[in-house]
Amino acid sequence: MKIGVVREIKDQEDRVGLTPEDVRVLVERGHRVLVERNAGAGSNFSNEEYVGAGAGMAGPDQAWDCDLVVKVKEPSPSEYDYLQQQMVFTFFHLAGADPQLAKTLVARGTTAIAYETLEDNTGKLPLLSPMSAIAGNMASLVGAYYLQTSQGGKGVQPGIVNGTRYGQVIVIGDGIVGGHAARVATGMGANVRIAGLDRERALRPDPGFGEGVHYFLSTPDNIAQAVTQADLVIGAVLLRGDKAPHVLTRGMVDSMQPGSVIVDVSIDQGGCVETSRPTSHSDPVFVESGVIHYCVTNMPGAYPRTATQALTQATLPYVTGIADRGVDFLSDHDGLAKALNTCGGYITCRPVAEALGLEAKYRPAFERKTGTGFLVKG
Question: How many CA atoms lie within 13 A of 329 on its CB side?
């Protein structure tokens, strides 16, 4: 199979879809790999390293004109003209993205295989997980940065000073993002409360997130009360493949103290804070109701070397499977099948179809193989 690795063009997005060592593995399996020039430069992978691994150097036209294109972030509008009937393996976040992307994928007959909806045999999200961990680690760090008065914040440092913890951090969501954010925040020395839906965990004195972390049930009343005293609120809510719900309403934001900070890590899926809107690394924050909002849609891109290595370690087995067998590889089990978001002119992921208000229909070829089929737009 001919595989293309394209250079990311999203603002300050320096991750790359495959490392030179990944290319070597694919070439040794008999595949041809074309890498767009300087695609790995931001992650400190040189063109020479890719050539040494067996790749061919290419311009964007050639890298996109492949059977399988491997990326990191969803195609930008300026890349829509490259979309055709190829397979594209990347983060799509279609439920929270511009609806025009989904419409273009359907119109062009592109097979969109999404990192964020692929599940393993245990139902976990192995490709989303490493990026969620990096974003969670980062959320507490950037939140603390914007609490500085020099950045417009209220001047509270999350940390231990002479044995006393300072800073109130509220993490909404107890998954991978929330867990990593809570551990970093408590490691810094902040007082941390994490909201989740596990009633048993809420009853345990040690919820498993480290010293100084207290767990409470995520209900509108509890969150509304908690955020009034918060210095930093981290939104870490995930509905698989679907648009994130607004668990932090505009009224709750209005009740927060001026100079407080919100980091909405859920922004890729539309954001879990009603006042959030997408921002970029070049222009990362805005102020609403006196509260600083950080809503960068590609947070792990700030650490491209680490993020690329962690991501490609997870994606390579799936890239090789798709390269070896094509889209039929996804029919091996239902979890892999959930990665297919568009195919043959249809939306093929139930949460995406519902979020975009599209009609549901089954794809019989996969129904025979998986017993479930895919929901598609008719």
Answer: 15
